[in-house]
Design goal:
Layout lengths: L1 H18 L6 E4 L2 E6 L2 E5 L9 E3 L13 E4 L2 E3 L4 E4 L4 E4 L12 E6 L28 E7 L2 E7 L38 E5 L5 E6 L9 E8 L4 E7 L5 E4 L8 E10 L5 E3 L3 E5 L8 E4 L2 E2 L7 E3 L2 E5 H7 L3 E5 L4 E6 L2 E6 L4 E4 L2 E4 L5 E3 L2 E5 H7 L3 E5 L4 E5 L19 H4 L7 H6 L7 E7 L5 H17 L5 E7 L10 E7 L2 H9 L13 H11 L7 E6 L18 H10 L2 E7 L4 H12 L4 E3 L10
Parallel strand pairs: 20-32, 33-34, 33-36, 36-37, 37-38
Antiparallel strand pairs: 1-2, 2-3, 3-9, 4-8, 5-6, 5-9, 7-8, 10-11, 12-13, 13-16, 14-15, 14-17, 17-18, 17-19, 20-21, 22-23, 23-30, 24-25, 25-26, 26-27, 27-28, 29-30, 31-32, 34-35
Length: 619
């Protein structure tokens, strides 16, 4: 028995070591494919066929009874009440209350690694320390090849999986820091973007679903919202690993036309975006119909009116908005519109209309309402070559002469400023306003800001809230900015310093110059940036404050001497020596929090949660 246990333990350790190689590498265990994701395993099950409700997960070892198992079908998690687990027979049965997985659906379960048991005699194998092998080629796929009694690794070139598998992601601040090279974003934009954006039938919310393989922790996903002038008004960050649902009312959009699209960005600045989709917003509680032509909300003296199932609008306004010239013959009560080689004639009270002399029967005749000649908008628009859609949820007529052309480039996505006075409830002041209340005299303040792509939403927050901040601090205060990414230790090209200024508009201009980009490592060069900020304080400064903002840990010389000039302890000494108050806006937990907490606690500052400093972040 002792020999048998030794051999089984050796085999189990070999298999588990294969699982623990890198985050998304896989092995085949019986008929299941297993992926390692942090401290969890993801087991692929059989694809759905529309009827099967029982799925087997075949492992060499059993899963500990009672282990919490999460089940997903086509990236959507099935609630725990919707299935049962037979740990002895390694099967999952989906309850009748849930639909059977659809034909071709990808199904998988997620379990903690420490829940695996030794299969032969039922002895529990607790989390044994397993030495993880060093990976020298992170871009190759490791597969296992089984022969009787032997398991050996076979390394091959990357294999493109025709069925992309969506990994289950954890929040960035909760996962271990990965020092391996970032996998660049390489997905298409436009019509081939691998994701969908849909509005629900009632027009009250939208859903986003991505179909992307190998989503990295350094990828950031957004829903971008532009107004009819193609100006970015909202940016909503979401978890790309799940189906994302969000209420339109939470966006607080005024009545008007908007373009929604999905955007993915990696920390090196690579991005991909879906085709912008037009969404009409109508907040009129009385249910008054509104009209959009080429995305623009139309304003009529006489509102649109429905007659016999046709929507009638003032003739001159709609014809001219569609590029036609109009004439009105009061004697015959005839409207004539011309555009290019097209001529349209309509007569008040008659359902007979003429297009280039050809008779067309209308569903509703033009009529005079409150002194305005009203004509059927669908007939007029389609006669002039436009496409017309009726949006019942928004009680809107949407007309486009040509497909909208809305840019999705980074240069086109500077977020419009919101009204500072109305953007925050008085009972819940912003982080920057909280910091301002701690300042009792004029102070030299340096914003030290991580400007990698994942910081986009936070940068928007700082830009929009800084006005209220600078108006709240004691007069005579001045402000500087240090921006950082992941610098080359021999050239500080990715450290930017903007000189001290008392001019509030100049400070805002400096912040607007910051463009989230690059920084392929999860760790950043924040300590170098803090040291630069310390060195830039005026010699005669009597009060010094640093506001440090990042969503990632920093390189520390004590642990990564090849990537950092300073350690946290050395920076702490410099802050204390120069009597600098140090505030930090960082993740609420994880490595970055632990690093910055030491600096904050030792230097009279406060630690704030970065989740409270992300504009339009969906939680």
């Amino acid at each position: 028995m002792k020999f048998k246990k030794t051999m089984l333990l050796l085999m189990f350790s070999t298999i588990l070591t294969g699982w623990l190689t890198v985050g998304t590498e896989s092995v085949h265990a019986a008929t299941s494919i297993v992926f390692r994701e942090g401290d969890r395993l993801k087991l692929l099950l059989e694809d759905g066929n529309g009827a099967n409700r029982v799925f087997k997960f075949n492992l060499e070892n059993m899963i500990m009874p009672g282990t919490p198992i999460r089940l997903y079908s086509n990236l959507t998690e099935i609630p725990s009440s919707g299935f049962t687990v037979d740990y002895t027979n390694s099967t999952i049965t989906i309850a009748d209350s849930q639909p059977a997985p659809s034909v071709g659906s990808e199904n998988h379960i997620v379990i903690p690694i420490g829940s695996i048991m030794e299969g032969s005699d039922g002895e529990l194998k607790a989390d044994q320390p397993v030495e993880e092998p060093k990976v020298t080629q992170p871009d190759v796929e490791t597969r296992t090849k089984e022969t009787p009694g032997v398991i050996e690794s076979e390394v091959s070139q990357p294999v493109v999986d025709p069925q992309p598998i969506q990994p289950v992601m954890e929040s960035k601040e909760d996962i271990p820091v990965d020092e391996s090279p970032e996998i660049p974003l390489s997905i298409p934009s436009g019509e081939n973007f691998p994701g969908t954006f849909t509005i629900n039938s009632s027009g009250t919310s939208f859903a986003v679903r991505l179909k992307i393989k190998n989503i990295q922790p350094t990828y950031t996903a957004y829903v971008m919202v532009k107004n009819s002038d193609a100006q970015l008004v909202k940016r909503i960050q979401f978890d790309p690993a799940t189906t994302f649902n969000y209420s339109l009312s939470n966006l607080n959009l005024s009545t008007g036309g908007y373009y929604f699209y999905i955007k993915m960005i990696d920390q090196s600045g690579n991005s991909a975006a879906s085709v912008p989709q037009f969404v009409p917003i109508n907040n009129n509680k009385a249910g008054q119909v509104v009209v959009f032509i080429d995305g623009k909300l139309q304003q009529y003296e006489q509102p649109a009116t429905s007659i016999s199932g046709s929507m009638l609008v003032p003739f001159r306004a709609v014809f001219e908005a569609l590029g036609a010239k109009v004439k009105w013959d009061g004697a015959t009560k005839t409207v004539t519109a011309t555009k290019g080689n097209m001529t349209i004639k309509l007569t008040v009270g008659s359902r007979d209309a003429y297009i280039n002399g050809k008779l067309v029967r209308l569903n509703a005749a033009p009529r005079l309402i409150n002194g305005k000649v009203m004509v059927p908008i669908r007939f007029v628009s389609e006669a002039l070559g436009a496409k017309v859609k009726w949006n019942i949820a928004a009680q809107s007529v949407v007309i486009f002469l040509a497909p909208p052309q809305v840019l999705t480039t980074s240069e086109s996505e500077q977020l419009m400023e919101e009204n500072e006075d109305n953007s925050e409830p008085q009972t819940n002041p912003t982080i920057l306003k909280k910091i301002s209340t701690t300042l009792t005299k004029s102070t030299d303040i340096v914003f030290v800001i991580d400007v990698t792509s994942s910081m986009t939403g936070t940068l928007d927050y700082v830009r929009q809230k800084v006005k209220g901040f600078v108006d709240s601090v004691p007069s005579g205060s001045q402000f500087a900015v240090v921006a950082f990414r992941d610098i080359n230790l021999k050239a500080d090209k990715d450290l930017e310093f903007f000189e001290f200024t008392k001019d509030k508009n100049k400070l805002k201009g400096n912040l607007n110059m910051l463009r989230p980009l690059a920084g392929g490592d999860l760790k950043e060069s924040g300590l170098e940036a803090i040291q630069l900020a310390i060195s830039k304080f005026p010699k005669n400064s009597s009060s010094k404050t640093i506001i440090f903002i990042t969503d990632a840990p920093v390189h520390d010389k004590s642990t990564t001497p090849d990537k950092a000039r300073f350690s946290v302890d050395e920076i702490n000494e410099q802050l204390q020596k120069n009597d600098v108050v140090f505030n930090a806006i960082v993740p609420a937990n994880g490595p970055a929090n632990k690093q910055m907490k030491k600096l904050v606690d030792s230097n009279k500052g406060t630690l704030y949660d970065i989740r409270d400093a992300k504009l339009n972040l969906a939680k």
